[in-house]
Amino acid sequence: MTAETSQTLDRGLRVLKLLADTDHGLTVTELSHRLGVNRTVVYRLLATLEQHGLVRRDLGGRARVGLGVLRLGRQVHPLVREAAMPALRSLAEDIGATAHLTLVDGAEALAVAVVEPSWTDYHVAYRAGFRHPLERGAAGRAIIAARQRPRDPGYTLTHGELEAGACGAAAPLIGVTGIEGSVGVVMLADVVPERVGPRVMDAAREVAEALR
């Protein structure tokens, strides 16, 4: 801690991070041990976080992340979208296909930013807000590949999984804390051109760097 930082705020944020990393919640005693502070301090932290809806405690006394975190999380998408737009525009213009940034939302893939090329006669209509199962389409499959092979997920190609006659290519975002997502393109073609996969990976790296 430095003179410019708040110890109490730091501890509160650490509580939220600890709770976010567990599915079954934590007791006051468990939090006390992990934070290295006494139980009284933990009680005060939890009471404050509860007032703001960021933490809730179940009947057994275990603390969990509260629904207030979702309200904060909804504000993340515009920031992520803004950071990704330059790389998506470059990708769409270079490939001549609709480029998109897709994030995980539960068991679904959610397109949060879409850029269509300006110079093509036709392209796939793909809108921000479009959802599909993670296991269908290049965007979701790329995210799953990153879970299975975090060191070298590469890129993913698909054909006709979301729309007949449309091909997709996507690469996951790597090294962005707290965000699971992918960058990809969708095009009307029989096969994805060879250069598209590596180009999509470059765009995913650009977006990841912008979000770090």
Distance between the termini: 22 Å
- What is the residue-mean pLDDT, rounded to a whole number? 92
Bin the helical content.
Answer: 40-55%
Which structural class matches the secondary elements?
A: alpha+beta
Major sheet details: 6 strands, antiparallel
Number of separate strands = 8
- Spans of at least 5 consecutive residues whose pLDDT stays below 50 are none
Order of helices and strands: HHHEEHHEEEHEEEH
Helix run count: 7
Q: Output the strand order for the largest sheet.
A: 5-4-3-8-7-6
Query: Rough shape?
Result: elongated
Residue fraction in strands: 15-25%
Kindly provide the radius of gyration, computed on alpha-carbon positions and rounded to a whole number of angstroms: 21 Å
